Amino acid sequence: MLIDFAGDDAYEATFNWTQGAALMGYGLLIDRNGNDEYVGREWAQGAAVLGAALFLDEAGNDVYRTDQYAQGVAAWGIAIHVDYEGDDVYEAQMLSQGVALPGGAGWLLNGKGNDNYYSKGKRPTGYGDAGIFDSWSQGCGVGFRGLQSGGVALLYDGAGRDRYEAGNFSQGGGYYFGIGLLRDGGKDNDVYIGSRYNQGFAAHEAIGYFEEAGGNDFYTTRQFVAQGLSWDETIVAFVDHGGDDVYEGGG
């Protein structure tokens, strides 16, 4: 357990299982105020396996940087990453920002602020497309096909002008009995950048849900397999409540 009451803090770790993470137990990190920077590797900033983890930052313009398995990711347990307010930056390479592996509930909840979410660059896609990466992030329920069903994942952002960018399998979707949701509750002009299987998708008996409360939003993907895509006995909903929106999809 770690509780910090004030100050602009820098948390940096060169090893795994830090900054509000739990392995077969419980993990808690609370930072009450300040513009903070969190730098970790894997299983950090709200992550759990066979346990429960809570990461809570109450205020400030914060920066979160990791490799993977971070920022609200769980397997056979529950992990919640909460940031109440501030203009925040989330950076990862894959499997981060609200991810539920088998038996898990992984949630990232952000209250308000102009936030930037980024997750890609580690693993080139198995589809063979040059310059495209797998991500499995930003509200993604991930199952192991033929082995175990995925969990329940959520990325919720309450308000602000936000930007989401990720590789394949991201931004509100499920894979192999997984459930993934992304909801942006603000009515500002948001940007969503994806590649393939993004922005409300599901594949192989899964569920995906994407909801945007309003604003003049911009949606773009490298390929057309996105934006309310249902594949192989799945349920998907894509909801945008209002605004002059732009949708772009590749070939």
Oligomer category: single chain
Number of strands: 32
Binned strand content? over 45%
Mean pLDDT: 97
Strand order of the largest sheet: 1-4-8-12-16-21-25-28-31
Q: Ranges with pLDDT <50 over ≥5 residues?
A: none
The tally of helices reads: 0
- How many angstroms separate the termini? 49 Å
Radius of gyration: 17 Å
The secondary-structure class comes to: mainly beta
Helix content: under 10%
Largest sheet report: 9 strands, parallel
Silhouette = globular
Describe this protein's structure.
- The chain is mostly beta strands.
- Helix content is 0%, strand content 52%.
- The protein has no helices and 32 strands.
- The chain has strands spanning 2-4, 10-12, 21-23, 26-31, 37-39, 42-44, 47-49, 52-57, 63-65, 68-70, 73-75, 78-85, 89-92, 94-96, 99-100, 105-112, 116-119, 123-124, 133-137, 140-142, 152-159, 163-166, 168-170, 173-175, 179-184, 191-194, 201-203, 207-212, 218-221, 229-231, 235-240, 246-248.
- The strands form five sheets. The protein has a nine-stranded parallel beta sheet with strand order 1-4-8-12-16-21-25-28-31, with no helix packed on it. Strands 2-5-9-13-17-22-26-29-32 form a nine-stranded parallel beta sheet, with no helix packed on it. It has an eight-stranded parallel beta sheet with strand order 3-7-11-15-20-24-27-30, with no helix packed on it.
- It is globular and about 50 Å long.
- The N and C termini lie far apart (49 Å).
